Amino acid sequence: MVADLEAPSRRTVLGSMIATAVFPPLARGQQGNDPASQEPTKVKIRMMFNGQAMTATLYDNASARDFASMLPLDLDIEDYSTNEKITYLPRKLTEAGSGAFGNERPGDLCYFAPWGNLALFHSFYRYSSGLIRLGRFDDGIEPLLMRGEFPLRIESA
């Protein structure tokens, strides 16, 4: 048996439009957060290696929050290809922050889910499946340009 569904009245539609215009934060709250959010938070981290320190701002997504919950970490950082340094995390992060993104640029801090590693980009790159952007470095990428393997400390800033 198919139930008859009434179309919303003009008054209901108009009331919803007015409420959304007057109370936009409530309307956004009903939609929920984008799991692949590329919006910065106030959460900052510090990465130190080879006598250099870098600060990054994390984004508002589940993968970045999972990463922040693991800090502090003592790892090793190494060169990978010609455009990034990588470090392997002690466990895989949630992939709830995944989703295609654009605006790729040097200074992005990403997680590559298939391998379970962080990717710290110091040159241009293109988004690929499995890459989750966690945040961006605040003060440039110069320390990432030093070739070699180094002990790495990651902590809350």
Write a concise keyword list for the protein shown above.
alpha+beta, eight-stranded antiparallel β-barrel, Cyclophilin
Topology:
Elements: H1 10-22, H2 24-31, E1 40-49, E2 52-59, H3 62-69, E3 73-80, E4 84-88, E5 108-112, E6 117-121, E7 131-137, E8 150-156
Antiparallel strand pairs: 1-2, 1-8, 2-7, 3-4, 3-8, 4-6, 5-6, 5-7
Q: What does the model show?
A:
By secondary structure, this protein is α+β, with helices and mostly antiparallel strands. It has a single domain (40-156), classed as Cyclophilin (Beta Barrel), CATH 2.40.100. 18% of the residues lie in helices and 35% in strands. It is built from three helices and eight strands, in the order H-H-E-E-H-E-E-E-E-E-E. An eight-stranded antiparallel barrel has the order 1-2-7-5-6-4-3-8. It is globular and about 35 Å long. Mean pLDDT is 84; it is low at 1-5 and 12-32.
The quaternary state of the protein chains shown equals single chain
Tell me the radius of gyration. Answer: 21 Å
Helix content: 10-25%
The largest β sheet comes out as: 8 strands, antiparallel, barrel
Low-confidence stretches: 1-5, 12-32
Described by the principal axes of the CA atoms, the overall outline is: globular
- Strand order of the main beta sheet, please? 1-2-7-5-6-4-3-8
Number of helices: 3
In CATH terms, what is the fold-level topology? Cyclophilin
Beta-strand residue fraction: 35-45%
Mean pLDDT across all amino acids? 84
How would you classify the helix and strand content by structural class? alpha+beta
From the N-terminal CA to the C-terminal CA, the straight-line distance is: 60 Å
CATH C-level name: Mainly Beta
CATH architecture: Beta Barrel
